[in-house]
Amino acid sequence: MRESLVKMGVPVNMVGSQRLGVFLDNDLEGYPGYRVSQSHDAAKKVVPKMQPNLFIIHVGTNNALKDIDVDKAGEHMEAFIDYLLETSNTSTVVMSTLLTNMVPDTEPKILQINEQYRALLPKYDGKPVVLAEMHPSEGLPNRPQVEDIGPDLTHPYDAGYELMANIFIESIKEADEKGFLQWPVNNGYPYDGDAGRTE
């Protein structure tokens, strides 16, 4: 996904307190097993310092898997987004619906959470928030399907991740076309995440 963003003609610096992958600019912020509210709490430790100008959020699957706060996932997501926009005031948020899930008894909860996420979008009319629709239930083309989900019944195979990346790219382009994307604040982080990094 980073390579696709660079091809759009802008410098990219992925930021976060963790690193994943074999490429240089592989920073991210992600916590396996975290629910929406837990991800919000974790963000409070890094967002004030890093001040990203673009957030890509894909969280809520663990609410469904653990059957915790399923009915409050949208409420928790709204609080999360509000925090990000307020704390990093040049930012845009790409909010993702959840992937289809094959774990028994989980898909109905996924669908319930996704409906809550979609219902949030009108609340952000005119604000820098866009939706990345990942679930095939909406009938959109090139969404990850059941056959794209891997052996753990939750995470996709590589082909599914590629579909996700393409969907995120399209959502970022939508945000750009709407005039949402802004340059990040000058807080000491380089605009180009590959610059000067050797490992």
Number of helices: 7
Strand order of the largest sheet: 3-4-5
Q: Tell me the number of structural domains.
A: 1
Quote the CATH topology: Rossmann fold
The shape is: globular
Strand and helix order? HEEHHEHHEHEH
User: What percent of the residues sit in helical stretches (DSSP H or I)?
Assistant: 25-40%
Q: Whole-Å distance between the termini?
A: 19 Å
Domain SGNH hydrolase-type esterase: 21-163
Protein name: Putative carbohydrate esterase family 3 protein
GO molecular function: phosphatidylcholine lysophospholipase activity
Structure explained in plain terms:
Residues 21-163 form the SGNH hydrolase-type esterase domain. This is Putative carbohydrate esterase family 3 protein. This protein has 199 residues and is mainly α. It has one domain: SGNH hydrolase (Rossmann fold). The chain contains 7 helices and 5 strands, in the order H-E-E-H-H-E-H-H-E-H-E-H. The strands form 2 sheets. Strands 3-4-5 form a 3-stranded parallel sheet, sandwiched between helices. A two-stranded antiparallel ribbon has the order 1-2. A hairpin with a 7-residue loop joins strand 1 and strand 2. Helix 2 (36-43) runs parallel beside helix 5 and helix 5 (73-87) crosses helix 6. The chain is globular, with a radius of gyration of 16 Å. The model has no long low-confidence stretch (mean pLDDT 89).
